[in-house]
Amino acid sequence: MPLTDKFGRAITDLRISITDRCNYKCVYCRTGNEGALYGDLPFEDYLRMTRVLVGMGVTKIRLTGGEPLLRKGVVEFVRDLGKLRVPNQNGGEPLDIALTTNGHLLADLAQPLKAAGLTRVTVSMDAVDPDRFARITRVPNGYDHVLAGIRAARRAGLWPLKVNCVLMRGFNEDQIIPFGMFAREEGVTVRFIEFMPLEEGRTWSPTTVVMLDEILARMAEYRPLVEIPHARSETARRYRFDDGVGEIGIIAPVSHPFCGHCSRIRITSDGKIRTCLFSVWDHDLHAQMLRGDSDKELADFICEVVQKKEERHHIGEPDFVPASRTMVHIGG
Ligand code: SAM
Is the distance from CB of 110 to CB of 149 less than 8 angstroms? Predict the structure, then answer.
């Protein structure tokens, strides 16, 4: 019986933040004044939490942060995750293990991660121009590292390879067409993400968001797009160019929310469960472990927490209450 919330949504995807440290200070995410606030746990603790959740119906894991590649031992952790099996009648099948990274340290780690059992990687990259990239990330010379990381991931066979770009008006809305070209040239899927109010500096306003319709209209000036049918549970709307070369996606939580088929829960780097990015509280799974709960007791706790999963977010509505943590301290 899959883990299901009170709205009938099956919980199959787990995102684990393995650190809330980050080596980038992206303008839409961090102020640059705050560092890691919550710290992290030994990998054995994340492994136990994951094992319990896999026994309850989770089939996909995504490691995130902060910047997950800053964490020493990440390759060994992936190897341990790879030994977990999703229960089925044939004795179990491997988990889908993905990673979201800014790519800065990926060039050296792509091959070891693939060998350890990583299935897929998503690299965040918000400009295809080195100067613009530095202005957004507030780190000099990052662009070359990230490009090298993307290419190393492709060589290592971490496939499909996705590149996520958060568009923020005034910073990178002119990168839409260059990213279309990049998708075609590099053979990656570029996914544009609408900016959500989850930043440290509270700079979000509806006018800073570059929305789906605008992205499509701008890209169509470059080349016609054809929509690819997508599964209901997929967060991205997918499009290919008319000549079949290159794919883009748009994740539009602000203009086209997909809460109705959200299948995710998150574990923060300090071991708290969050049932929604926009939750105003979290649930202390690690405290349950520290007090000596058995796996069965942890599973009961998780079941109870999942029943509290929010129906939807309220971005842009008068009753919107900011989340109790910002994105870098949740794990995107
Ligand atoms: N450091 C890793 C990275 O850069 O991919 C993983 C963590 S980062 C928080 C995960 C994703 O969240 C990145 O793709 C980032 O661009 C995105 N993100 C951060 N703040 C966001 C916001 N306010 N709205 C939308 N996406 C955001």
Answer: yes
Does 332 contact ligand 1 (Cβ within 6 A)? yes
17 confidence band (pLDDT: 50, 70, 90): very high
241 C-alpha to ligand 1 centroid (Å): 26
Q: Looking at residue 308, what DSSP letter applies?
A: T
Quick check: 232 pLDDT over 90? no
State the Rg of the chain over Cα.
19
pTM for this predicted structure:
0.97
Whether a cis peptide bond, with omega within 30° of 0, leads into 140 is no
Question: In this predicted structure, what is the pLDDT of residue 197?
Answer: 97
Question: Does 327 contact ligand 1 (Cβ within 6 A)?
Answer: yes
φ/ψ of 179, rounded to 5, equals: -70, -30
Please state, rounded to an integer, the average pLDDT across all residues of the chain: 96
Ligand 1: residue whose CA is nearest its atom 11: 332
Q: Which residue has the tokens 């919980």?
A: 11
Ligand 1: distance of its center to the CA of 294 in Å?
A: 34
13-329 belongs to which homologous superfamily? Aldolase class I (3.20.20.70)
Is the C-beta atom of 64 inside 6 A of ligand 1? yes
Q: Which of 126, 327, 329, 330 to mutate to test the pocket of ligand 1 (most atoms within 8 A of CB)?
A: 327
Average pLDDT over residues 269-284: 97
Domain boundary assignment for the chain: 13-329
User: With contact defined as beta carbons under 8 Å apart, do 139 and 126 qualify?
Assistant: no
pLDDT tens digits, 132-155: 999 999 999 899 999 999 999 999
Distance 1 CA to ligand 1 centre (A): 32
Q: Are 66 and 22 in contact (CB under 8 A)?
A: yes
Share of the chain above pLDDT 70, in %: 100
Q: What pLDDT is recorded for position 1?
A: 67
